[in-house]
Amino acid sequence: MEYSMSTKVTRTSQKLALLLRAVVILALVAGLALLAGSVLAPELWKGWIRNVYPQVTDVSEWQVVLLALLATAQLGLTTIALWWLARMFSSVSGEEPLSLEAAAHMRRASRWLLAATVYAMVAQIPASLVASLNQPEGARFIALGLSTSHASGVLASLVLYAVASIQELAAQVRDDNRQIV
User: Fold this and answer.
1) pLDDT of the residue at 137
2) Measuring CA to CA, how many Å separate 18 from each of 10, 25, 82, 97, 122?
């Protein structure tokens, strides 16, 4: 059975929207599990913190909870970006795949992804400070680092923003062409 390109776009967009919604639900569950685990099983997280910050020798329960809150905030920002992408794919699967609405959703997703990436870069400072607060004077530290995942996040958000701008322009041209004809 041969499908038109419009039908293929609609079906693929619907599947991607559904997949992204499932990922959003999983991310929300993971965030809740992260917070619950920091309160209910702090010893598990203490070992992880010592692996991330080898110079940290003493970690208290409140430090585990604060670090879990910092990590959950980043997960939340990323989840919001994925939610807007799901909305974008839902818009694309509608009657008009090339729409201003879909472009607006993609632009919002790019902004949230950029916010999550910048947060990931900056959150290292309070995370390292919280992790090292129980250390003796002279052993406390503040860490900041940039990685390829940060660069990839910024690049991905810029690409999404550019594609959204092009999609918006294409939708405007299509609307102008319809008015002429």
Assistant:
1) 84
2) 12, 11, 11, 16, 32
Contact 85, 109 (CB under 8 A): yes
Distances (CA, A) of 73 to 4, 65, 66, 165: 42, 12, 11, 28
Coil, helix or strand at residue 45: helix
Q: How far is CA 79 from CA 9, 26, 27, 102, 152, in A?
A: 24, 9, 6, 18, 17
Number of H helices, E strands in the chain: 6, 0
Q: Write out pLDDT tens, residues 12-49.
A: 889 999 999 999 999 999 999 999 999 998 888 888 88
Q: How far apart (Å, rounded) are the C-alpha atoms in residues 68 and 36?
A: 9
Q: SS3 for 110?
A: helix
Average pLDDT over residues 109-127: 96
